[in-house]
Amino acid sequence: MKNILLVLTLAFVHQAQAVVDATGMVTGCFYASDAANDGCYNVNEPYGCSCTKPEVLGSAALCVEKYKDQLATNDNSDAQLQEAWSNVLHMICFDSDHVDAGNYQAVLKQAQEEQWPMDVTEQLAEEASLAAVAFWKNQHTSKMFAWGIMIYFAALVAVSAFVRAVFFVNSRLGRALVYSPYLNKPRGYVSMPPTIGSKRAIPWNIGPFTLGSVLQRGQTIILLGYLVLIIVSYTTAYPLNSDNMRLPTNSAQWTKYLGDRAGIIAVMHLPLVVLFSGRNNILSWATSWSFDFLNVLHRWTARGMWVSAVIHAGVFTHLNRENYPDYQKMPFFMYALSAVSILSAVLFFSMYSLRHAFYEFFSYTHFVLVLVFLVMVHQHVKELRFTNWVYVAVGFWAFDRLMRVLRILWAGVWLTGKFTIDNGAVKVTLRSNRPLNLKPGSYVFLHVPRAGLFQSHPFSVCEAKPNNTFTLVIKPMKGMTNRLEQYVRRRGELFQDLRVWIDGTYGHTAPVEDYDNVLVIAGGVGVTGLYGYLETLKLFTSPTGELVQSSQRRKNVQFIWAVHSHKNITWANIEPLLNHGIEVQIYVTNVAENSNINEKQALARATGIPEDIIHYSGRPDLDSTISSWVQAPGSAAILTCGPPAMNDACRNIVARNLRTCKNTISYYEESFAW
Predict the structure, then answer these.
(1) Where's the FAD-binding FR-type domain (predicted)?
(2) Per CATH, is 412-506 categorized as 3.40.50.410?
(3) What SS3 state is found at 638?
(4) Cys bridge to 201: 267, 424, 481, 647, which one at CB 3.0-4.6 A?
(5) Residue pLDDT, tens place only, 393-438
(6) CB–CB of 442/532 below 8 Å?
């Protein structure tokens, strides 16, 4: 692994080698000048007096001038020496307050004019340079390891982007590449099932504490690769040397270099963490990675950054334990302490149980704390020349926010939505000022200022209609959706007009039209995420459909919908699906078969749904249905969107069948994980 990282970063190493050598030499002369002046500079104290005393600075400049040909192996031009001198003042001294201290030629000229003594012998300079080179080598190696982590994720993006491009050019070829029957067993055993047990969407609990959801095995494998890189980064390639005059023991060297490496890796994590968190980023567009998977990467890289920051802070707190009270007075240290504390608070409030129990509190605190954290990190690293990583992270964040605003402006500022209570849900009819490119699987973030000015939630587009009109069906939970339902109920009107903002659309569309058999399984309000696909599939099922009459083969489509109450059936328009040859089976799970017959008949008349397709007892037999479906001749796609238990059951059944099935089988799951 280490050799791979070295090869991948060879270009960076070659380009920077001259600067590294010159910087090591300048650092060595600082070390030697310090030693020749009774050890004024303390290895663990950032603001050593060696960095501010004119005679020590001058002695270091004279050392560089005298020994530059012996100690440095590459270009020693004035430009290289000036860059090296500036690097040292920032990295070792955290900049200097002395006049012209940052100008190597000015310091050298002053030292020569005032004839300051230069008591640095060639042997001392060589010994000090060895220690300096080790310091800079660890800095450079640490950056390479951090780059290796970014290259790892970039490779994942490249592979996914290639597959995405193949699907874009020819979806059938993409299906053959990804969902080939030859890959059924690996998918059934390795990528699809939960890492342990049978729960993926259902959160795991230990007593009263909810730990969160288990990842799919494929996701776990990706994160294990990341974990291996982190472990390798912290356990290998330390430039330990028994002749190091600054850190005489291997233990002292390893401790100091570990702290430096952890800090570098932590700050270089920032762009990754922010990039994975954005709604609008090139990763989602290029790879079709789901909102759920990007959230997984965001959380785990944030945890990796936190571990690195804690190691960095812990090591330097340990190294400075003897003069800790003085260290606390330094702004540099206080910014670091604040950053680590804030990051710890962010991770604490992001715990699954707290996030779901107090989502609005989590949302507000997350936003504010992250902004303060970025400011603290910037102040901590600004003298170390690592601020570029903060700027990149802020750039990703600003781009995401700008795109959200532009999406809202595109849809129209202060649109009016028609809200109505529809049998346990809030139905919203919206019309945007401009087309939103609505497709099956699309979702939007809806802002309703009346229910929460700074709150927005994602909702699947249920039905797309002409003239940029579409509908959402919102199942009230807690927070904004509950306030919204209560407000509409209190008004007591059939329709309630409310001002809204629409941020969207987002999401990716599954190519269901490429399959011979399509099984659509919805639970409750999950029908909203799948109804668009059923609207599309109507064109392939009706004997009179244009696509059926063309070269496209007529498709076998079945829709299974489980609802809690028979009144929920009004959430989606089922009659057109039946008229176009789609087989529909509806299961009402909390009504007995022998319930009020008149009520059933009234429901059938109101919805146009035959009584014989509505089952009033039990739940759908997903196991037998899916198992028989995947064994049918031709290719098959299974789409699900429902409660966690239903999604888990469908995924596990499909995974089990993949291990023995010889057909082309694709599984698509619509879900949101916060």
Answers:
(1) 395-512
(2) no
(3) strand
(4) 647
(5) 999 999 999 999 999 999 998 899 999 988 888 999 999 999 998 9
(6) yes
